[in-house]
Write a structure and sequence with these properties.
The protein is α+β, with helices and mostly antiparallel strands. Helix content is 27%, strand content 40%. The strands form two sheets. Strands 1, 6, 8, 9, 10 and 11 form a six-stranded mixed beta sheet that branches. A five-stranded antiparallel beta sheet has the order 2-3-7-4-5, with helices on both faces. A hairpin with a 3-residue loop joins strand 9 and strand 10 (166-171). The radius of gyration is 24 Å and the shape is elongated. The termini are close together.
Length: 205
């Protein structure tokens, strides 16, 4: 699943109606009411505040709200965009200020899909959660350059300690790179496998 890094706001105008998409990352469903109250304060007297959310490690919780628009013309199109992008823990609200021209059911569906889609494509930044192996290795001082070169661009060195030996704490963003350890294991005085750590890896969608 993919996570939205920070709140984004994006506006489109269709047939004189303003559609303002506001997508907000959430940690808990209890946040939804407060987000909606703030949006109604920030964007007062709008005709509709249509919304959808996806939540859970597998996106197992989802819901949509048409807020007075014809059934399934607003909330569902917003929700489908979130699912299409494989997003979770996100609350999307599309605020509509009616411009005087009716769009019809098809036009509404297209508009309520377009606003969040363009928001995500134009101004969104995203990450995925990865549980990465963490390994602590120790080696003699004269091997520092060799180790730095060996792990360069492939392993994150999160900590360096300089005591009797040099100790590096390594985070393997790609588990297959653990094979790098086998290649130099004979040079190491100690190898300790620690608990995996949670990383937020930037991704594009």
């Amino acid at each position: 699943m993919i996570y939205l890094k920070e709140q984004i706001v994006y506006e489109i105008v269709i047939q004189k109606s303003r559609f303002i998409a506001v997508l907000t990352p959430i940690e808990d469903l209890s946040e939804l009411d407060a987000i909606m109250l703030k949006l109604k304060k920030d964007y007062p007297k709008a005709n509709h505040y249509c919304s959808a959310y996806v939540y859970g490690t597998k996106g197992e919780y989802a819901s949509a709200n048409d807020d007075g628009e014809p059934s399934r013309t607003a909330g569902i199109p917003i929700l489908e965009i979130l699912k299409q992008k494989n997003l979770t823990n996100v609350y999307a609200v599309v605020i509509r200020y009616f411009g005087g021209i009716k769009l019809g059911a098809g036009g509404l569906i297209r508009a309520y899909a377009k606003a969040p889609l363009e928001a995500l494509n134009e101004v969104g930044s995203f990450y995925k959660k990865v549980f990465a192996p963490v390994v602590k290795i120790s080696f003699p001082y004269h091997l520092i350059d060799k180790m730095d070169q060996h792990f360069k661009d492939q392993v994150m060195i999160s900590e360096k300690e300089y005591l009797n030996d040099v100790t590096y704490t390594l985070i393997f963003e790609k588990e297959e790179n653990l094979s790098l350890l086998e290649e130099i294991k004979y040079l190491l005085s100690e190898v300790i496998y620690l608990e995996k750590t949670l990383l937020k890896m930037p991704v594009s969608i």
